[in-house]
Write a structure and sequence with these properties.
By secondary structure, this protein is of the alpha/beta class. It contains nine helices and eleven strands. The protein has two domains: 2-48 and 92-307, von Willebrand factor, type A domain (Rossmann fold), CATH 3.40.50.410; 54-89, no CATH class. Strands 6-5-4-7-8-11 form a six-stranded mixed β-sheet, sandwiched between helices. It has a three-stranded antiparallel β-sheet with strand order 1-9-10, with no helix packed on it. Strands 2-3 form a two-stranded antiparallel sheet. Helix 3 packs antiparallel against helix 4 and helix 5 packs parallel to helix 6 (213-223).
Length: 315
């Protein structure tokens, strides 16, 4: 983890009341299949979200005007009378929010920590999904535990999820004795695989620290029958550390003061970060997974609206 010296910003932690208030900002974007033309989730076929799917309702005699594509030819041939299969759209599509609250997320150089940004993004997503009539669940994880919350179309369930998320967020501290767990990411992807079936939407909110070939393999398997979106949380300092001063880097046990104004160090840091992020984005897009970059500076709801292609004033 790295922090800049100076006064600690008030957005180091988030509480459940703040996450509940975000319901008023959960508008102007959508995770439903129909997307504005300039939305991150529209355009290329591989980036479009699946529909909610269909439930079989009944088998009945053909009526004038029925779509011939719905004919059940097996039953028609057996009975000698034309029959059609009737389907109705499923009432909802389950959404799973995978939210990272590991120590690596306890970082922020200007406005808020990555961990707070991730929590806000999850809350906005949960409220929006609930308001659109879909079920929402979650996998919340840090370096010491993983919590699974089954999808539900219930305000009480969302409040419980946000309460657990806020509690996990408030456990983060630089003096933590829990060792960093980059391999936790791979474990969580495995849990998400087992938790999802078909036609789920899985939104992974993380800085993707610890992503690996095994994690990507799990993502690829999930993407065959589900939609996945990466909420890639980052801090501007990770892109450019040249303007920072008195920068301290820590792994939770040891600290080292750096001088980022020295261009050689800044160049190596930035090159490493950009290479890792570019590799990650390229791999995710191979698996039909749109990447939604979210920074720790701008309001999260404004970034969502801008990237999902809708005007802030729209609901």
């Amino acid at each position: 983890m790295a922090v800049e010296s100076g006064d600690q910003h008030e957005a180091v932690y988030v509480d459940v009341a703040a996450l509940v208030r975000l319901r008023h900002e959960a508008k102007g974007f959508s995770f439903l299949p129909k997307q504005p033309l300039n939305s991150l989730l529209s355009g290329r076929k591989r980036s479009r979200l699946r529909g909610r799917g269909l439930d079989f309702e009944e088998l009945r005699h053909y009526r004038p005007g029925d779509d011939i594509r719905s004919m059940d030819w097996r039953v028609t041939n057996r009975t000698g009378k034309p029959h059609v299969r009737v389907y109705t759209e499923e009432r909802d599509r389950p959404v799973i929010l995978v939210v990272d609250q590991r120590l690596a997320m306890f970082f922020g150089s200007q406005h808020r920590m990555k961990s707070v940004t991730a929590a806000e993004l999850a809350a906005l997503g949960a409220w929006r999904v609930l308001d659109q009539g879909d079920r929402v669940g979650a996998i919340l994880f840090n370096d010491s535990e993983i919590r699974q919350i089954k999808p539900s179309r219930s305000r009480r369930s969302v409040l419980s999820m946000l309460s657990q998320l806020a509690a996990m967020n408030q456990q983060l501290t630089v003096s933590s004795t829990d060792p960093a767990q980059p391999a936790r990411f791979e474990e969580v992807i495995g849990i998400a695989e087992r938790m999802t079936g078909h036609d789920y939407l899985v939104i992974i909110i993380s800085d993707f620290d610890g992503w690996s070939a095994q994690a990507l393999a799990g993502i690829k398997r999930m993407s065959q029958h589900n939609d996945l979106v990466a909420g890639l949380v980052f801090d501007p300092l990770e892109h450019d550390i040249s303007g920072a001063s008195n920068l301290v880097v820590s792994d939770g046990r040891y600290q080292l003061q750096l001088q980022p104004e020295k261009r050689a160090l800044a160049d190596r840091f930035e090159e490493s970060f950009h290479s890792s992020v570019n590799d990650l984005q390229a791999e995710l897009r191979k698996h039909s997974m749109p990447v939604l970059p979210i920074n720790t500076v701008e309001p999260v709801f404004e970034q969502l609206r801008a990237q999902m292609g809708q005007h802030p004033s729209r609901g």
